[in-house]
Amino acid sequence: MKLESLRTILGNDGIVTDPSLNSAYTVDWTRRYKGYTPAVLLPRTTGQVSQIVKWCYENAIALVPQGGNTGMVGGATPVNGELVLSLKRMTAIEEVDDATGQIVTQAGATLGDVQQAASQLGWKYGVDLSARDSASIGGTIATNAGGSQVLRYGNTREQVLSLEAVSGTGDVIGDLRGLPKDNTGYHLPGLLCGSEGTLAVVTRARLRLVKPPEEELSILLGFRSLNEALEIVEEIRKSLDDVQACEIFFHNGLSLVCERFEIIPPWNEQLAAYLLVDIGGQAGLEERISNSPLSAFFNASHFVAYGNDSQSRKKLWQYRDLHTEAISAAGVPHKLDVSLPHGKLNEFCNNVQEVINAIDDQTQSFLFGHAGDGNIHVNILGPDPEDLEVDIAVLKYVASLGGSISAEHGIGRAKAHHLYLNRTPTEINIFQEIKSIFDPAGILNPGTIFPQQEI
Ligand SMILES: Cc1cc2nc3c(=O)[nH]c(=O)nc-3n(C[C@H](O)[C@H](O)[C@H](O)COP(=O)(O)OP(=O)(O)OC[C@H]3O[C@@H](n4cnc5c(N)ncnc54)[C@H](O)[C@@H]3O)c2cc1C
User: Fold this and answer.
1) CATH architecture of the region 331-421
2) Were 123 and a residue from 39, 209, 336, 345 both cysteine, which residue would form a disulfide, CB within 3.0 to 4.6 Å?
């Protein structure tokens, strides 16, 4: 591959070909996907991205867009020796518009950078997840990231007002106007959110901000049975206004977190399930909670802990936030990120272990997730990375309950062969037709969403 033209576009410091310096870009966060690349490309501007993609298009060379490389489904890994187009140097936050509550940023800025820039001007960005200091805005758009505050503010798609991107031919598309009303044909930002780098490279975005709550409160609840916890999820959603997050985790995940990070568990007694509830709104939260139908439950339970300042809230959140890292430190997990329709979460959580055991009773499974929106992360340790039998059994079970095989992480490479469980052949065909219009040479992230085809 002649990379001299790319060197001309990017300069010597914008292209990394030494494999010893490339390794952070060729292995995914879970370590389940490993690839190789002739070069990592590090543009600084949309113009450079456009020139790179145009060159790849003209030379039929595949590339993988990459942000913070925190994705969970192998979608940013160059498994077949693709070029890596990293947005790591496109980190400028260009504008925080106080009048409209909007922020304009390059795609490589991290979620944490955007949260901080918004908060400095008295605003809040409504997406949060524990990889905030590495995950990029472009990556969160490309995966339509969810996170812990979807209940309140929606997925990333709901935050993106406008975006700029580079299609598979190298053309710059989109705009950054952020008009509140604009029904001029198909909704480009909506289509590119969740497209996982297969339609275009997102280069800049204009995002909606929200006013931060006056007060925030975190409540950790412990339960002796799983069913008790799941019943209360419903009650919490019905009885409390201002719920921002309602997260669930279980005894084995909590033990792993506490052992790995040397943290004292919240209570001495081993409980079956835990809910972490975040509430935020106008001043007077504690009073409103004590007037809600849930106050009797809170008062009667032995297992309630409150966090009402940033330090005590952080302490409670670490039990939940550190799950992904603790599990990853224990092995290379098979990660299944599923969502269940209303009323089926209980059935799923009660039966999924049996489904797993029927295939392999030597695995270790950890469940946790965003209970408030029916999203559970099933992490399975034990099977070889290539052995998908357990994955398929769980995903088929989810589909049989009417759930989604990918709630928020995307399809990536991990689930490309299972898309049919949720999508009809006609729908998959339409998706592929759409891809071929954005990316006629099939150079953008081949093997992601759809199984690999020769280009
Ligand atoms: C500890 C931890 C906690 C997490 N928690 C959550 C969670 O709660 N909710 C959630 O949704 N996810 C979560 N994730 C997953 C991950 O952080 C998100 O998927 C995130 O959106 C990925 O962003 P990234 O910049 O790291 O993307 P990458 O991993 O670099 O890429 C992900 C996908 O997006 C594509 N892509 C990246 N940048 C661009 C771009 N500029 N243009 C076009 N395509 C692009 C890639 O090709 C790939 O397909 C978590 C991950 C970790 C490690």
Assistant:
1) 2-Layer Sandwich (3.30)
2) 209
